[in-house]
Specification:
By secondary structure, the chain is an alpha/beta fold. It folds into two domains: 146 residues, 3-Layer(aba) Sandwich (D-Maltodextrin-Binding Protein, domain 2), CATH 3.40.190.10; 94 residues, D-Maltodextrin-Binding Protein, domain 2 (3-Layer(aba) Sandwich), CATH 3.40.190.10. The chain has nine helices and eleven strands. The strands form two sheets. Strands 1, 4, 5, 6, 7, 8, 9, 10 and 11 form a nine-stranded mixed beta sheet that branches. Strand 2 and strand 3 form a beta hairpin. The protein is globular.
Length: 248
């Protein structure tokens, strides 16, 4: 009887540890402004977008509660490194450099970099024609390293958000913007329509992944959830809602 009671208590403790492993709300970081992945809806004041709704579906699938924490992109990896954040979903490219300090989920979106110029620009045709030019991009993103390694501009201006770098192009403060494909395409088709154009190829194609502190138990759970959401059509529905096309 005593042994049975001991085993029962041990089992209860083990179950308690499992159920409380993620007790309380997770803190999940997202970028402040990276449409259509994440941005503040001016009508509601709430953050929304593909990343935000995808994480909501993942959290429901794995049964966790969370607090969404919009923040500057450059602070997300350090926040994951220090375990102040439980996860980060912010259009974050999976790179070897980042994998040295944080863990990633499987890729959930395939992206790359595009070069954007004003509609009347004739001198800039691709990455090879950036010599002596002033280029804008976003702080802490893969486009910064790509420009350093593959181009020879006069200056690379770094901005904290998308709006600032696009405005700098429109007002003539820079000659071009290099940034992630979905954001550039969205700007070209909406706010920048008729004023800007894309030149050159798709550069540095890389998947986006969800970031976690090293050793996080969430990685396996999130990967399983992503597979389920792709199988049951939820992922496709969200993709089409935010990008207007079916995922390839």
């Amino acid at each position: 009887m005593k042994r049975t009671m001991t085993l029962f208590i041990a089992l209860a403790i083990a179950l308690s540890m499992i159920t409380t492993a993620f007790a309380g709300n997770l803190t999940v970081a997202t970028d402040t402004n990276f449409p259509p992945f994440e941005f503040k809806d001016p009508k509601t004041g709430e953050h929304t977008g593909f990343d935000v709704e995808l994480w909501a579906a993942i959290a429901k699938e794995i049964g966790v509660q969370y607090d969404l924490q919009p923040m500057a992109f450059k602070g997300i990896v350090p926040g994951l490194q220090s375990a102040q954040l439980d996860a980060g979903i912010a259009g974050m490219s999976i790179t070897d450099k980042r994998k040295e300090v944080i863990d990633f989920s499987d890729g959930y979106y395939n992206s790359g970099l595009l070069l954007l110029v004003k509609a009347d620009e004739t001198a800039i045709k691709d990455i090879k024609t950036l010599d002596g030019k002033v280029i804008a991009t976003k702080q802490g993103t893969t486009s910064v390293e790509f420009l350093k390694e593959n181009a020879n501009p006069k200056e690379v201006k770094l901005f904290p958000n998308d709006n600032a770098m696009f405005m700098e192009l429109l007002t003539g403060g820079v000659d071009a913007v290099m940034f992630d494909k979905p954001v550039v395409e969205s700007f070209v088709s909406k706010r920048g329509k008729g004023e800007v154009k894309i030149v050159g190829d798709l550069y540095a194609g890389q998947p986006y992944g969800i970031g976690f502190p090293k050793g996080s138990e969430l990685v396996g759970k999130v990967n399983a959830a992503l597979k389920t959401l792709k199988a049951n059509g939820t992922y496709n529905a969200l993709y089409k809602k935010w990008f207007g096309v079916e995922p390839r």
